[in-house]
Amino acid sequence: METGKIESEAEVNPWGEFAEKGSEVPEFDPEKAERMANLVKFTRFLERDLSVKKGMVEVGPRDEDNYNEEARIEYADRFYEGMRGMTTDLKMMMKDYYPSETLETRLQEITEDIIKAGVNYRKLGKVYQRDITDMRPEFVDKVHEEAVGYYLSKDLHKLDERAQTVNEILHLVHSAVMNDEEVLESLPVIEKKVNDYGTGAVLYGDEEAKNEIAAEIYHGLTAEVGDRTDVVALKDRTLMMVRDRGHATTIDVQKWTDGKMYVGYFIPKICNVEMVNALPGVNKVRTARETTTGIFEVENESETAERVLDLISRIPTDADMER
Asked: Is 191 helix (H, G, I), strand (E, B) or coil?
């Protein structure tokens, strides 16, 4: 074969197959490509989020880790390597959505605390609670105050210096992304409908995931039940941001390892205390100045969409505000 000789039409025309069949060459859609890339990034974020949560459990001290010197050395190594893994995941999550040198510095400080504890089981246990799992209620409240979709003045970075543990850092970064309407609106659009006001519900996400629960929720949204809702369909997971209900309530529907469906939600604005406190699985509030979360399980998967739509219909709006 002579050097540089073209051996086939495919080497000249990568669309030769289409040309031979008389088909049109598919046009490249830059917006679609960008949205698909955003979906990959968003899915990767959720996978890393889960990885960090698992990591916090795996590095926890166990009675057998204090059995003898060898066990203590093995635990110290496991703790250190686990922290390295969690740090890598969190840094990648922040790189994609929430860059923060302050949080990266704090992660390095936690790693140094683990190193300083050496193989001292008691000290490592203190580091685990103080630097890994602790979650202060006042910090959670501050995050909930700031992490609200469709609020123009939100700025979660002012909380970066307050985050002291891996758990708090994860909560801050997770809340910043999951309550950002721009993140959701950048994903691929599967279907959308427009109401009389020119807005409406949108079904985003991965069409190949065949998420029937997400589709059923989307098709069940009406003018009476959250017709201004963003629904994101992923594999085994459905995310929502419901505008005008509790200002912009976010809902997360997941299938857990026990086979049950779990519905978690965050309500940033309490329009009616009595109505909110009647919601399933809610953390009850005392005043309208608070925010709240809730979670409940659905044993029969086929009832999930119905239960979620019922939840949305019961979340108070501004029209329900107590005078």
From this structure: strand
